[in-house]
Amino acid sequence: MAMTEREDDRVLEPFFAAARARPPEPGPDVLARVLAEAEAVQAARPAAGRDTGAAAAGSSGWRALIGVLGGWGGAGGLLAAGVAGLWIGFSGIGALGAASTELWGGAGAILDADLGADGVFSLILDLEAEA
């Protein structure tokens, strides 16, 4: 016959009661080691904290900025997007016909041939102005 949950609780209850009556406490040697390590960390802090003034404020400012951007991953993504934007911006629009042909097939080439590069952008600006 298998024991039910109630029977298990009745069998184990004396052990649980004994554990609740005497909670575990760390020994004095553990407490001494913890306090010694804490004192060592506190003693090392002023030596590391001597960097005051503009240098400390500047580094915390950069850390805050990187934290706002989502850490190093977010800052790296923003940097990559910025560099890509600069590259696209400085590369010019000379290959607009090739890009439109790749994206829209023959329709892009027809649009580019009919309007030319300046005409495509003026058409886009006109559409934005109407909206």
Can you offer a commentary on this structure?
The chain has helices spanning 5-21, 28-48, 54-68, 71-91, 96-104, 106-130. The chain has a domain at 93-131. The mean pLDDT is 74. The N and C termini lie far apart (79 Å). The chain is elongated, with a radius of gyration of 35 Å. It is mostly helical and 131 residues long. The longest helix has 25 residues, at 106-130.
Please provide a brief summary of the model.
The protein has helices at 5-21, 28-48, 54-68, 71-91, 96-104, 106-130. It has 131 residues and is mostly helical. The model has no long low-confidence stretch (mean pLDDT 74).
- N-to-C span: 79 Å
Structural class: mainly alpha
Question: Major sheet, described briefly?
Answer: none
Proportion of residues in helical segments: over 70%
Number of helices: 6
How much β-strand is present in the residues?
A: under 5%
Note the run of SSEs as H and E. HHHHHH
Mean pLDDT: 74
Specify the overall morphology. Answer: elongated
Rg for CA atoms = 35 Å
Number of strands: 0
**Which consecutive residue ranges, at least 5 long each, have pLDDT under 50?**
none
